[in-house]
Amino acid sequence: MCGIVGYIGNRDVVDVLLKGLTNLEYRGYDSSGIALNDEGNIKIFKALGKLGNLKGLLKEQEKNIIDPVAGIGHIRWATHGSPTEDNAHPHTCNCGKLVLVHNGIIENFKDLREELIKKGCIFKSQTDTETIAHLVAQEYDAVKDLKKAVTKAVKRLNGAYAICVMYKDEPDKIVVARKNAPLLIGIGQNEHFIASDIPAVIEYTSQVVYLDDMEVGVVKKDEFHVYDVEGNEVNKKIEKLPFEPVALSKRGYKHFMLKEIHEQPDVIRNVLNGKLYDIDEKIILNEVKIDKETLKNLQRIEIIACGTSLHAAMVGKYLIEDFCGIAVDVEASSEYIYRKTVTNEHTLVIGVSQSGETADTITAIKQAKKKGAHVLIITNRPDSAMAREADSLIPINAGIEVSVAATKSFTAQLMSFYMLAMFLAEIKGSVPKDILKELKHDIIQLPTLIDEILTHKEPIQRCARLFANTKDFIYIARGINLATAYEGALKLKEISYINATGYPAGELKHGPIAMLDESMPVLSILMEGKVYEKILSNSEEAKARNARLIALTSSQDKTLDDLFEVVLRIPKVNELLSPVLASVPLQLLAYYIAEFLGKDVDQPRNLAKSVTVE
Ligand code: M6R
After folding, report:
1. Ligand 1 centre and the CA of 607: distance in Å?
2. Is the distance from the beta carbon of residue 28 to the nearest atom of ligand 1 less than 6 Å?
3. Index of the ligand 1 atom closest to the CA of residue 407
């Protein structure tokens, strides 16, 4: 959702801003804009829709851009006010001397807007952001100093903001500030970059400073300073970026999603690295900062997450309960935050998030912390706001995930839960050593088994072609693969817009069966193990209602070919590990259906990679 870029230095400012915005495109947006401080004039360019439109506009206007010294840019995902050019950022004040871009939501913007209108401010948009522009401009009139004006203004804002501000008469600087929304300063030689996320600057620098809440930064060409809101300078730590620029290339794949699906064997190896050395050795998880005695006596865990991360959490619950006998509740963050939860200092609360920026999950873990719980965060972004809240932090090391539809991060989250569940089981002594040893052996084989699936994609492609024009889909499973069914259905919905729903197979006859006929395919996840026969019976029930059947199975049983129209086979694996393998063909099925339908696979409509609003 929304993205911010800023630049001050000797490079082509427009080029840096556009490249930065292009690298943030994956976050999801519906309009874009930049502002330049050019030869003593503020110039604003905005366009609706994809960045190509802004690029086209800038090409047309080339002759009106002379020699900009600094610039700020933004991609907007509409929250307050529909996607229009007027609502696109940057926003300005009455005199047009000040320009500002903003990520986040200002909760008290209505009161501020009324107050500012009474003072003569003329609003041109419906956004909360324009309020900040007028507010800073008002303060500027009084103090005649951009840093002081921003510092005074942000004290009046409730909610979340990352802002980047330029003022016509102070062309040597960009002033930035943040609260509950990420913002970083990229450090170069006689140049500085500003961004809401790493991909915007990764091409130019690997050294960054992350702004913390309620800090204000003054960024110039050859220096930058960060202050608290009382005006005291803060000594900031320069950090090295965790990713390489190559992470942003498709490396020959048609889409990032396909590339990321293919990265999964390596992602698994990365997760195992340093945690699982040998099948005879215990799992090492130094990231868990709780003493062994407390872990041994742990009675209750809550896992909170959204979307795909929530599905990984469901597998986590299954594993921890199965291995350790600890009661685990899994809940969507957006539900957790609006009820009285039974969370206290004896609860371990696990927050799971690819981005580490999901607003609902951040709020939920903050609530849990207030109640005294130890908060463990499992995330792909150890540099994120959520990671900063963590008492214990398990980075999943999946590398930047660009496709909006999560794939490799899901696998890495699953793997992290296997590590955690086995780590806890070894501390509690709740699973016999030989069983854990066997499991470790099987875990080490997973990358090779996924490679096998990835080298035989043709049956999945054929299945995708066969079912691409279907309007609805049901995915059924039981046990540990119920979450796989939910995740498979979510993937299909997200990128193909086909109505797909995951159901516990046993629930089919309690309602959904009424929908079944030849127009409703049922995909059964049939992994050999405890519930295989049960799901087979549930599939028979569907067949009796004329549903077209697809099996995703580890079984070599040839009679399945009589019952199912399509049988997608994956290698045999311990049932407990089967979600890792079963997810891959489901990701591919969704991918090929969406690709066949000509959908925008990496940036599906209406979706954002990081959902930074509640
Ligand atoms: O970054 P997070 O894992 O916290 O994001 C949670 C969801 O927004 C995310 O998983 C979403 O459902 C993805 N689009 C799934 O593909």
Report:
1. 10
2. no
3. 16
Specify which residues 472 forms β-bridges with.
499
Q: Is the CB of 611 under 6 A from ligand 1?
A: yes
How far does the chain reach from its first CA to its final CA, in angstroms? 12
Q: In angstroms, what is the span from residue 404 Cα to ligand 1's centroid?
A: 8
For 282, half-sphere exposure in the C-beta direction (CA atoms, 13 angstrom radius) is 12
509: CA distance to ligand 1 center in Å? 30
- Per residue in 403-420, pLDDT (tens digit) is 999 999 999 999 999 999
73-109 pLDDT, tens per residue?
Answer: 999 988 888 889 999 999 999 999 999 999 988 999 9
Tokens 């400012």 — which residue?
A: 13
Cβ–Cβ under 8 Å, residues 543 and 589 = no
According to DSSP, residue 354 is labeled: S
**Global confidence as pTM:** 0.83
Q: What is the pLDDT of residues 423-445, one digit of tens each?
A: 999 999 999 999 999 999 999 99
**486-513 pLDDT per residue, tens:** 999 999 999 999 999 999 999 999 998 9
Cα(91)–Cα(101) distance, rounded to whole angstroms? Answer: 7
CA distance 358 to 612: 5
Residue 587: which of 480, 419, 453 has the closest Cα?
453
Q: Which residue has the tokens 């609902």?
A: 360
- 303, 317 contact by CB (below 8 A): yes
Determine phi and psi for 425, rounding to 5 degrees: -60, -35
379 lines ligand 1 (CB under 6 A): no
| Closest residue CA from atom 14 of ligand 1 | 405
C-alpha separations of 295 from 303, 427, 487 in Å: 16, 7, 30
The share of the chain scoring above pLDDT 70, in percent, equals 99
Which residues belong to the active site?
Answer: 2, 609
Strand order in the sheet with 374-379: 327-332, 300-305, 347-353, 374-379, 392-395
